[in-house]
Write a structure and sequence with these properties.
Elements: E1 2-9, H1 13-28, E2 34-41, E3 44-51, H2 54-77
Antiparallel strand pairs: 1-3, 2-3
């Protein structure tokens, strides 16, 4: 199994929660061949992506990082 770990620290717990909540639909509708684990802890958010092949890991990382970036950008704009 191949894994990638990401750890994000936000300015507030509210901002971290906004990002986690925005990812919920994506986490529920899994990317094929991947397992996603996340944890919200105060102002921090951790994400672990597991898969059996490198191309699936790359695709999942790109998707989740893009969704996280979008959530942060939208939250700052609103």
């Amino acid at each position: 199994m191949i894994s990638a770990y990401f750890y994000f620290t936000f300015d507030s717990e509210k901002e971290a929660r906004v990002v986690v909540n925005s990812l919920q639909p994506e986490i529920k509708h899994k990317i094929p061949k991947t397992n996603i684990h996340f944890k919200l802890d105060d102002k921090s958010f951790s994400l672990k992506i597991e898969t059996n092949d490198l191309s699936s890991l790359r695709a999942a990382c790109n998707s989740y990082l893009r969704w996280i970036n979008t959530a942060i950008s939208v939250n700052k704009t609103v």
